[in-house]
DNA sequence: ACGTGAAGGACCC
DNA sequence: AACCAGGGTCCTTCATGT
């Protein structure tokens, strides 16, 4: 199953020869430390699946019936919270970084483009020409080059992206200044009040936003999804990508029909691993998820069950995160990390860690934030990650305190495992 | 039984 | 020949103390 990250459907990749992509990825990576590490993680997942299956098989018929009744009860309880009253739009820019680069150099439009820091680092974005070859975001440059030898690499230039992002945000603010910026290229906008006040619809606003964003950015396109919750709007934003929109109805019937055949992998929060686990229990779509709710309740943790049931029913995330206790806090952390040619040189690693920890402290000062905990992240040449953390006496953003804590945490590890060869450090 | 800190991971863009 | 980011959030598990 290795490589499934790069073969699952993504906008603009419908006609890609997935077999070929899988083969090229495999041939290019088999035997590398990264591949070994992926295999290790897959084995851990296999073990987890085996434990879940054993637990399921060990349960009696009576126990299963109890889980069935309780799962039904949870579903009924969740149903009671269903409300189609809110109207959410999600705007997602199409191939954002690549599209920004094309704006400055239109010649790029007709050639395959990958935006990456270097030809061997991972792509942050691929334009739609490149996607035809199976090239996509998160793919290492050297594999992308194998799939598409003519691929043109462009280094990311965040000034361009911030500018375009601000231009698009000016449009979002017209509909709700309290929009949620998911990232530079994505926003959640609640338009319930706007629709009410201006007697309009999500469809009409989505059209407006798409044309205004194109205007404001000088030609960038975006896709818009709409629905009665952030979750549903988000999944809809991908439905007619690129340069399209899809507004889902807000009745229970509309939602369940939509979800019935929707692959679970499309939902925010379900990635490669969870997809694999669910597949093992014959769950491919959100409809399957609903049907197998008793299994979910029996085998997943309570939080995970609630999350999955919410997906299956299309309930949850109707409100702004600030309306919930958990979401009301601000920034949780500040970090800096860097990958380099793997080395065991202690002087080099110390210098790197000092540099990064200093940047973190300065960034905290700039943001007027203080931290109660310092953590370091070390990635070995074998790609396994070591994290070490320490709680401070009190909140601080003092450079010396943060640098010394980070160095102490790293040196501690270095003295235990002789010859630790690292390819990344971070604080 | 429960809160808390630490470590590891999954996931998102 | 070798080459797989960097910024985040959240959850789970385990050890530990009360």
UniProtKB/TrEMBL annotation:
One GO molecular-function entry: metal ion binding
Keyword Membrane in annotation: no
Gene Ontology CC: nucleus
Presence of keyword Acyltransferase: no
Enzyme Commission designation: 2.7.7.7
Group of enzyme by EC: transferase
GO terms for biological process, alphabetical: DNA repair; DNA replication; error-prone translesion synthesis
Keyword terms: DNA damage, DNA repair, DNA replication, DNA-directed DNA polymerase, Magnesium, Metal-binding, Nucleotidyltransferase, Transferase
Reaction it catalyzes: DNA(n) + a 2'-deoxyribonucleoside 5'-triphosphate = DNA(n+1) + diphosphate
Classification via InterPro entries: DNA/RNA_pol_sf, DNA_pol_Y-fam_lit_finger_sf, DNA_pol_Y-fam_little_finger, DNA_polymerase-Y, DNApol_IV, PolY_HhH_motif, Rev_trsase/Diguanyl_cyclase, UmuC
Domain UmuC positions: 88-271
Family: Belongs to the DNA polymerase type-Y family.
PANTHER family: DNA POLYMERASE KAPPA, DNA REPAIR POLYMERASE UMUC / TRANSFERASE FAMILY MEMBER
Name of protein: DNA polymerase kappa
Species of the source: Ostreococcus lucimarinus (strain CCE9901)
